[in-house]
Amino acid sequence: MEEKETKEILSRIQSMERELSFLKERVLSLVSPQTPKQATPPVSKPVPVEYHQTEVPLNDGPNWFVQWIGENLFVKLGVLSLLLASIWFFYLAIEEYWINESVRIWIGLVSAIPALLYGYRVRNTRPYLSPSLLGLGIAVLFSAYYSGYLWYDLYSTETCFVGLLILSLTAVAIAHAEKSEVLFGFASLGAFLVPILLSTGQNSYPFLFTYLLLWNVLFFWVRKDTGWKVIPLLLLAANHLIFVGWADDNLVDAKPFFPIAFQMGVFVLFLLREFQTLETTKSKEPILTLVSIGFTLGLGFVQSFWAFSVFYPVAKPFLLTLLLILFYGLYERSLRRSKLSLEKKKIYDLIGLFGLPFIVSLVVIGTTGKLLAFSLISFAFLVTIASTYSKQLYMYWAAFPVWFFALFYIFAFTYRSQNEIPFLNGRFLVFATGSVYLVLSYLYSRKFSEFSKIFLYAAYPYWLLGTFVEIYLGFPEEKKLFLYTLSLILYGLVALSVGFGKKIQSLRYVGFGSLALVIIKFYLYDFWNLSLGYRILAGLFLGVTLIVTGTLYNHFKKETK
């Protein structure tokens, strides 16, 4: 393909040279003095060369997929095939004992040199092939050197560790120079395998976590000014998989500093790097960056929960809260340093929701019973206020399911405890607080979102529901029906009075609805089921209320039209 393109270019250059020569002679003939006796010999015009495009470039139209397979996938499969063939031949040579132990190692080391040299040579002309060949060479060197330690004991554990580490760092240096994500993947695989391959069964976790943390610092530096997307996810998974593999048997017997320092270090380094990538990226949909941030927070929270449960079980909610505060601190730092377009603001609004489920889990972890219900309602209120203040509509919407769960969680404690006074207990305090929070949420966010009316429409029913629960649990059966009616009358009258006095139309509707319920309930149910005394009282209160209501409507009739 390259030879054909070269021939076409040379042909075009020759044609342009002939045409340029013709134009030069033509200009000279026009400028020089003409003699009528001498006839100018005719100049033959060059025959234009016509090119007919018989092939469509592979990168045009649907053929881009063919190009990707031919230039990228086929190259990697070819390298893999060569690697497998080499491994099989090497295995056969070992089985037949064609070569001894030391020669086997040297063959492996020497065979990697051609792949490295050729991969480096074609780094500019064949960008798909070069990283794969370099990675193949590094992998062969790594495997051959490790085999000398594993199978033949040619050198000590410390010598093997230093050699493998030098190979990994060399691959990192080449990957950094070439900005090659594939090559860095080979280097990362080797670096994370070194402590696992050389493990002697001793619980030397200070060295393990120090080594891994230093490697993550190196990655933090190397990834600067790169657009790598997949490698961060792979490294994040490798960090946490190694931690889980170690902690499953050894966390209980370890000291807290190194495991917690490792988790916090990985957490901060990855968040800093991914937020920096988000600040500088020009992509409108940095999906993998968002996924990396989400997994960093999620895995960091889960692993920290595990570690804090073992080392500091009492202070666990407080320490996890500090972890989330750290996340939002880095989030705000990145938000201030980023030039916000509309698309980028939506992305940051979405990231702001990442910590919401973990905050809810903290509330659940830190409290129990009625205190938990109160904390959930307070948290939902704070999220609503914070989202309104920061103009983050996504967070505003995300608060609604928290509200729903928080408001009705109190029903898990709808039972009467000993020495409990109706309307003077923690359960009714939750209902009252929830109603007040709903009203305040409406007043604060009514100019921000039209969905704020939901808070207003839910406030009075929730208060009424709390009242009914107190009546149901705190009074004998013969008084309940009368108290239900009385509470509807009382609340309806108060709502009407305030609505007319403050000229609040919604409160008038609330009062009118309450009284309508009282009328329906009185004539369809109370009239037939209340005892005579309570029936008289209910009728008396209802009659007085209806007269007062009619008076109010008549007094403010101009405003009700």
From TrEMBL:
Transmembrane segments: 73-91, 103-121, 128-148, 154-175, 182-198, 204-222, 229-246, 258-275, 287-308, 314-331, 347-365, 371-389, 396-415, 421-443, 455-475, 481-500, 507-524, 536-556
InterPro entries: DUF2339_TM
Keyword list, A-Z: Membrane, Transmembrane, Transmembrane helix
Name listed for the protein in its UniProt record: Membrane protein, PF10101 family
Source organism of this protein record: Leptospira wolbachii serovar Codice str. CDC
